[in-house]
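Audit log entry. Action: structure prediction of a protein-small molecule complex. Ligand: flavin mononucleotide. The ligand was supplied as SMILES and no pocket hint was given, so placement is left entirely to the predictor. Protonation state taken as written. Sequence taken verbatim from the request; no trimming, no tag removal. Recorded inputs:
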Amino acid sequence: MLKKLSFDKPIFVLAPLAGFTDLPFRSVVKKFGADLTVSEMLSSNALVHGSKKTFHMLQKAPIEDPYSVQIAGADADIIKQAIEILNEQKGIDIIDLNCGCPVPKVVSHGSGSSLLLDLKLMGNIIKTIKETSNKSMMSVKIRLGFEKKIYLDIAKVVEDNGADFLAVHGRTRAGKFKAEVDYDAIREIKEAVSIPVIANGDIDSYDKAKWVLEHTGADGVMIGRGAVGAPWIFYQLKTGSNDIDNNIKHDIIMEHFDKMIEFYGSIGASMFRKHTHTYSKGYSGASSLRNEVNHISDVDQYRSTIDDFFKNSKIV
Ligand SMILES: Cc1cc2nc3c(=O)[nH]c(=O)nc-3n(C[C@H](O)[C@H](O)[C@H](O)COP(=O)(O)O)c2cc1C
């Protein structure tokens, strides 16, 4: 059965991160209490053209309930066709529209944050998704503007065209991932619209999440980079506890590795290098581990190397 998100209390959401938040990572994060997980961004064009890779990326882990699929695109007709395809796919509860991606490859196609330059088109696409989708909700992920901050105009268009909630990354496209996050702007958006608002940007601890929720009045927080190398952050966010036992970390890292192999096959071992790099931050011997795994492709050898490292190495 399709599930609707409840906003009775603040929710904790894993942000979509292309190249990181795939099924293996999301299923590990979900265990620690994330209320919502979102797929990596999927191109509506690729869906319509039946890209095998894109359909593989659509899959969800059984515990992802509810599950949101994020799409990108700039052509309402193509998006309509993509939604009709997603309508045939079971287990998706929410369709999210990407209106924030700053990457030139995406922006040059008029997608992602480019939609913030044409609010009429953005509104039309939101309406098309809402009217075509058979899922229980649709949401939009925005930035505060492309160059200029025009966030109240953007938020109104999102609301007026039928979105059920929105997530706000508190920077403009020009601010990329480094400019200071404008939490006051997120508060203004929250005050201006009646749909739930989720705050996003540089939230990486219990104290920060608590402060952002209080300061913005938002209905939830979305965490991206703070979860990379630390999927247990959702447990910490929910409980306020900063302690994660090293043995638990070891078990989670091994489970993540095994899920990568299950999902991608043996190539999953070399794909795990980037995760090995982030998990090993702060451990003694991290840099020699990184060098070592950069040369390992064999699954069993990779597994025993990280098993040994995370069992025996200490945080410095
Ligand atoms: C490597 C990377 C990949 C990202 N991929 C996506 C994506 O596919 N869709 C999206 O809406 N945002 C994407 N983002 C933006 C994040 O979802 C988030 O808005 C941003 O990183 C700010 O949140 P944070 O400070 O918690 O990471 C990506 C960010 C990074 C760093």
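Audit: result stored. The two ends are 47 Å apart (CA to CA). The pocket of flavin mononucleotide is lined by residues 15-20, 40-41, 70, 98, 100-101, 141, 169, 177, 200-203, 223-226 (CB under 6 Å).
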